[in-house]
Amino acid sequence: MYQKYFYISLFLMAGSLFAQSKGITSFEENGLYGFKNKKGKVIIEPQYEQTMEFTKSGVAFVVSKNKWICIDTKNKFLLESFLYDNGPDYIVESLARYVEEGKMGFHNERCQKVIEAQYDFAYPFENGYAIVCNGCELKPEGEHKRIVGGKYGVIDKKGNLVIPIDSEAIISVDAKKRIAEVKQDGKTVKVKWKARS
Q1: 20 to 30 A Cα–Cα from 33, which one of 11, 66, 153, 167?
Q2: Based on the structure, what is the number of domains in the chain?
Q3: What is the pLDDT of residues 56-73, one digit of tens each?
Q4: Which residues does UniProt assign to the signal peptide (predicted)?
């Protein structure tokens, strides 16, 4: 179900989100990276371990203390991105995941926090909805990690819980019919929700 996100992600990386902001480019000095404006003037001193270029939205993802963070052109820290595929989380349906104090939420392409970080894990959005969980953990499994334990629910893009976080698993979500197949007390049941304005 979530395998297709890899392909969507590659498309988005090549698209407008990571398109370079006009005139600002990264440069390296003594193993650290900073940014210069179109006149070659240093606007952010070399201090980062790795950088991506500034986007048209005026933000850049950089590595600081082994974490991918988002900054603006004034070098203001905006948020810490969720690490995915050894880089910042991808924008899917206009939102990407960020972490704050051990919890996960969603931000937009300007690195503005849209959905508060309040979940132990959140899957990317698909057809307007995302599966979230609390009490779950990321467990290493070879080169990857998997989610174990906890209770699961579903949120919409405004952060409203359309299915409470009380299921053992969310098996499938039908966004058009607003029905989810969930596992509760060891049984698979269907849960319907109403559209919210």
Answers
A1: 11
A2: 2
A3: 999 999 999 999 999 999
A4: 1-19
